[in-house]
Write a structure and sequence with these properties.
- The chain is elongated and about 45 Å long.
- It is an alpha+beta fold.
- The N and C termini lie far apart (62 Å).
- It is built from 3 helices and 4 strands; from the N terminus they run αβαββαβ.
- It has 2 domains: 30 residues, no CATH class; 58 residues.
- It is 44% helix and 18% strand.
- It has a 4-stranded antiparallel beta sheet with strand order 2-3-1-4, covered by helices on one side.
Length: 105
Amino acid sequence: MGLFVMVARHIVRPLLPALVAVLAPLALFLAPRDRATVIVLAASASDAAEAVALADGAILSRFGAFGLIARSEQPGFSARLYSAGAMLVLDGGGRGGCLAQSTRS
């Protein structure tokens, strides 16, 4: 395993600045805002549900086998989700179903 690690470091280290340059703007674009609908991904949908419950959020619907769509009106929801065990939290892009806020006046 020591040789594999050395080879991996030799290959990854030169590519790291390029990876950061590409992924950082993408992460900023996908980062959820407060009071936004989010996609919560975890090891399983039940783990995602537990993270949402611990973070004081509401589950709106399922998102595949490993995620949920959730929302909280309290600021800092994304940080609380990560603290509660979520593996990844993405901006839901309005995927709130019938529970999302209406844009009609």
